[in-house]
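Hi R.,

Here's the chain you asked about this morning:
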Amino acid sequence: MNETRTAGRALGIEVDVHRAAAPHELDTAFAAIVRSRASALLLIPDTMFNRERRRIAELATTNRLPVIYHWQAYVDAGGLMSYGPNLNDLHRRAA
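And the predicted structure, written out as tokens:
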């Protein structure tokens, strides 16, 4: 997180951190994000987030919050965009 905050400061962007460690915490986290008047969200890869990607995409869409995801699966679940490796391609190359 320190690197993200440092990069944000260099770009004149304020970086707020909101945590959700379990699925039942997602609504509360998104409510806090909306209250903070965030203009976008960068979702850090996490196993729970991956399992809850459809719900996260729905919460982001409902709250009109653009999100940059790390994997295409989030976009396939309804997310806006991803910026990261194509996992299917990586798995094919590793096979």
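The first strand starts at residue 41 and ends at 42.

Let me know if you need anything else.
M.
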